């Protein structure tokens, strides 16, 4: 069985961020058979995340969330846009993860905001964050503005495409991490001892 962790950083309840996360998870599960979805609502862990940043020790609830993310086969990560970037809670959660915890993990990224003008957050904030963590975001990311919810046809199409790409990535062979050890140039040329 394939396990997908869904991290959503919406602050309100109900949250358009959670709605987008659910839409993306549904798009993946409709394409990929035998999938288990584990949703992590960061709003419920906000105090735990802050305490972990101050002390370096996760609470049991935060440890469980971290374990769900780091042991999953793939990650769907969705954040609201605040001041032209991801939310502080979203970033703080990923800051408490071990830097190598998402190495090679497929990620489907999404964001929500008031207007379409914030859609670049996907490429200028989220992709660099996950590149730093050495995760592997799929090509299609999904941004949902307030207007997308009034007539969700185009949003559904984008979510479906992203879900298919993510499912295809999950069903392919796992990537074997490259040995990061130094290899002398002479050895590469076959002239070394």
From TrEMBL:
Residues 3-149 form the NADPH-dependent FMN reductase-like domain. This is FMN reductase. Keywords: Flavoprotein, FMN, Oxidoreductase. Signal peptide: none annotated. The lineage of its organism: Bacteria, Bacillati, Actinomycetota, Actinomycetes, Pseudonocardiales. It comes from the Bacteria.
